[in-house]
Amino acid sequence: MPEKEQIYTTLKEYFGYDSFRPLQEDIVNSIFSGNDNMVVMPTGGGKSICYQLPALLLPGVTLVISPLIALMKDQVDGLKANGIQAAYVNSSQNEDKQQEIYTQLQEKQIQLLYIAPESLSFIDNLLSQIEISLIAIDEAHCISAWGHDFRPAYTQLGYLKKRFNDVPVIALTATADKATRKDICEQLNIPNAKLFLASFDRKNLSLEVRPGNKRIEQIFDFLEDKTEEAGIIYCLSRKTTEMLAEKLQNQGFNAEAYHAGVAHEKRALVQENFINDTTHIVCATIAFGMGIDKSNVRWVIHYNLPKNIEGYYQEIGRAGRDGLPSSTLLFHSFADVIQLQKFATTSGNHEVQMAKLDRMKQYADSLSCRRKILLSYFGELIEKDCGNCDVCKNPPSFIDGTIIAQKALSTVVRIKEEEPMGTIIDVLRGAQNAVVIDKGYQNLKTYGIANDISWQDWQQYIIQLINQGYLEIAFHQNNKLKLTQRSKKVLFEGEKVSLANLAEFEKIKETAAQQIKQRTANTLFDKLRELRLQLAKEAGIPAYQIFNDASLKE
Ligand code: ADP
Ligand code: MG
């Protein structure tokens, strides 16, 4: 293991930094101790140094698996400019070039070798001839079908640890919930990897959710004091991006549309103009933003509900990289939910997609601090409410929900954490449906102890318990509800629980509904019900179960 001094000298000499960012030093040391490591750190957090620095001090080559062939050249050129011996191998190179790299490798002239997972088989022979000291797997979420950017070639990477079983592995990603992390480690054969979880808290971003009616008017209103500021409006469809850009232009804003259907040169131009502040607003699909390094984006609006929290977090994360206060605004509409549910049911892995969408919806519907929910999604608990989201700024009133929580949690205990929310509520309310009877749940001690609370209210309470970290949803096990460290405090240590007053929630919903003209609301509601029933029929699952909505019980 190198001396601390040597590590700091290397940091300064090759990267120009005097100090490490949070976790970097611990990660570097863990590599030198020979551990396998799983690093989850937000974009821009400084993941690269975690393997680049050890690469300079370890005797052999560090193999870096990276999916972004397009960025590989830039990365390697950047390293070389700092005097680091780096190279990459990919399918675009000719044989001479590849031969040159092979020779350099054999002569131990290369410290970092970047390679795409698809190209690994080309250098299979070579790998047995060189000394490998570290294997880094960047964008490691690509290995998991539960992550949000699955790449089939990544699933073969598990063999690396089998073949080089005493070489430490470091897997790095900016986006992975708990289950995805576990999946990554299992697939890479590093079950004992040390987990490094950096904070995802971006305190400078304010969070706000509004009902999605009259969005355009709301946007003009929002932009009133932001005419010269850079911002992004994310939309679900290409058509919406164009419609919005045009409306904004008509109002005198410097706005452009950006989506995969825009010609290549035009897209590059929009991007360039945005970066140098000629274009202030980009109305874009999620295609926009990857790899764009602009620090002074002051606001991000989601015109439509994103399909999961990972995507939402990444997109709002493009605001305020300079650390200055920046605003984010999310519009929440029924129509979007329906649309997204449709996408989710037709995608592979639809149960997971659906569960993730549910979490997104719960975030948007939340009556408790939104940042807590966002961070708890990534496995991070914050003690205090954030004070910088709309719920914190305008909080609902609370009731003592300790007894309600105890009832719910002890039902989860008695049911051995084997059921999803719907069944837990059925047991609490003493329902007599097939699941309850088949499994003998009517004999549980908590059966029917809380039928004074309606099904919908129970649903709201349980969502609040989840959002406050008292329960967890196991997405990958049919959405079963699981206990947490915190639930034990309520059950055994007398911890008090506050729950938002649902009467208040009704009031919020009413105001939102009033804002939509009654007639539109009625037709919309009927249409919604029809669509839900139809979708459920196609899926062969009772509608009230898919949508967690008892009013759909026929
Ligand atoms: P990630 O891969 O996590 O998105 P990078 O490794 O690309 O992040 O680093 C993001 C930026 O932070 C880079 O410009 C990098 O030079 C800078 N950076 C990384 N570590 C440090 C540090 N210890 N001190 C100052 N800047 C750092
Ligand atoms: Mg990176």
UniProtKB/TrEMBL annotation:
Natural source organism: Aquimarina litoralis
Parent sequence residues shown: 1 to 554 of 706
Domain Helicase ATP-binding, residue spans: 28-194
Signal peptide segment: none
Similarity-based family: Belongs to the helicase family. RecQ subfamily.
ATP-binding among keywords: yes
Stretches assigned to the Helicase C-terminal domain: 215-368
UniProtKB keywords: ATP-binding, DNA damage, DNA recombination, DNA repair, DNA-binding, Helicase, Hydrolase, Isomerase, Metal-binding, Nucleotide-binding, Zinc
GO molecular function annotations of the record: helicase activity
Catalytic activity: Couples ATP hydrolysis with the unwinding of duplex DNA by translocating in the 3'-5' direction
Cofactor: Zn(2+); Mg(2+)
Name assigned to this protein: DNA helicase RecQ
EC id: 5.6.2.4
Top-rank EC class of the record's enzyme: isomerase
Keyword Acetylation attributed: no
Domain of life of the organism encoding this protein: Bacteria
Residue ranges occupied by any Rhodanese domain in the UniProt entry: 188-273
